[in-house]
Specification:
The complex is a heterodimer of chains A (about 160) and B (about 210). Helix content of chain A is about 80%, strand content about 0%. By secondary structure, chain A is mostly helical. Classes of the chains: A mainly alpha (about 160), B mainly beta (about 210).
Chain lengths: ~160, ~210
């Protein structure tokens, strides 16, 4: 009997912290609650930005990223067994948002990259065209000046002093 | 057209071409600028004042303190930032600016957010002590409520309840290592931003 009592005491002692932990609303903070997929999507967003996406285009993606982040955090707060279904629903929603974001970010990267290339090409070609037009203007100006000098030369008069 | 004239025109064309292409290059290439973050904590009236109820830093259990924490991104790229909140006392080591090391004080919570370049993310930070105890000369805070969420703490005590501090650190996400790092990488050096706000919990009868 004393042996059984000791076993019972040990079982209760072991189970008490668990019971307290389940009942308590408070949570000890765990910082590593971040889905690895966020990293991949974030990398694509950064690539789109480096390719020349505008702040307005990026804002749209960042708003979606933050929404996904909030849902992800909300899901990780649901730790009780009866909240498992809600947690799974939220994580599925996060996955869907990240899928959509990945597609959008990739498209944006392609568009921004194309636009940046076109803009650079236009800028450099414009420089060449402007240099050509400037040279033409210089040639025309020089010929006008030369004609003016010839005209002036022939208009000279010799005045005896 | 004489050969002299042709040579002159060629020189003019090449000079104009070089100058204008340089302008095109400068116009299409982003200029390097200093990369940094701005981190701040404001009091309940969004000023650098009124950090505590009635301007009294001696807090009691249940005293609600309202601050506004903000971060501005001047990194020229989208950033994922985390604001980590720690509870420390007078003796615990603060974050190390030189070595870019975070404080070893116990982590209470963190707030994460993606922010674009030049964007400021500001959020209300409403907190209160929800549980604490006094053992001898040592005052322990065992539970904090932040933005309606309760956090249990370990080993957060101060002598006679004086000089507790909330340390607010800025962490940034590094895509390559897929992890948060304290501070951020600017050029070849690591920079950090952190803040601390001190308070006391001296009214021991009100702790229990």
């Amino acid at each position: 009997m004393p042996c059984l009592r000791i076993v019972l005491i040990l079982v209760i002692a072991a189970a008490s912290p668990l019971l307290i932990a389940v009942d308590s609303i408070a949570v000890t903070f765990q910082p590593d609650e971040f889905q690895p997929r966020f990293n991949r999507v974030f990398a694509i967003v950064l690539q789109a930005e480096a390719a020349g996406a505008t702040p307005d285009e990026l804002r749209e993606l960042v708003v979606l990223l933050n929404s996904a982040l909030e849902l992800n955090e909300e899901a990780f707060k649901l730790t009780r067994p009866d909240e498992a279904q809600r947690r799974n629903e939220l994580l599925t929603q996060v996955d869907q948002m990240l899928d959509s974001l990945e597609t959008k970010a990739s498209q944006l990267e392609a568009v921004a990259s194309q636009r940046t290339f076109t803009n650079k090409l236009l800028a450099y070609v414009s420089g060449g065209i402007a240099a050509f037009l400037g040279t033409l203007a210089y040639a025309y100006g020089t010929s006008l000046w030369r004609r003016y000098r010839i005209k002036r030369t022939f208009q000279m008069r010799i005045i005896p002093k | 057209m004489s050969s002299q004239n042709r040579r002159n025109l060629l020189v003019v064309f090449i000079t104009l071409l070089v100058v204008l292409e340089m302008i095109a290059y400068v116009g299409t290439t982003p200029r390097p600028r200093e990369q940094f973050f701005q981190l701040y904590v404001l009091g309940e009236n969004r000023l650098v004042a009124d950090y505590y109820p009635n301007d009294n830093p001696n807090l009691r259990r249940g005293d609600s303190v309202r601050w506004y924490v903000g971060v501005t991104n001047f990194m020229r790229t989208v950033q994922l930032v985390a604001i980590r909140v720690r509870l420390g006392n007078q003796t615990i080591r603060p974050p190390d600016d030189q070595q870019a090391l975070p404080s070893p004080a116990s982590l209470v919570t963190e707030f994460k957010r993606f922010i674009i370049n030049n964007e400021t993310w500001e959020f209300p930070f409403v907190w209160q002590i929800t549980s604490g105890s006094a053992v001898g000369e040592s005052v322990h805070i065992s539970e904090l409520q932040i933005n309606n969420q309760t956090f249990q703490l370990e080993s957060s005590s101060a002598l006679n309840g004086y000089n507790f501090r909330l340390i607010i650190e800025l962490w940034t996400w590094d895509v390559e290592s897929a992890a948060f790092h304290f501070g951020w990488q600017a050029s070849n050096e690591r920079r950090v931003a952190w803040l601390q706000v001190w308070f006391n919990v001296t009214s021991t009868p009100l702790l229990s």
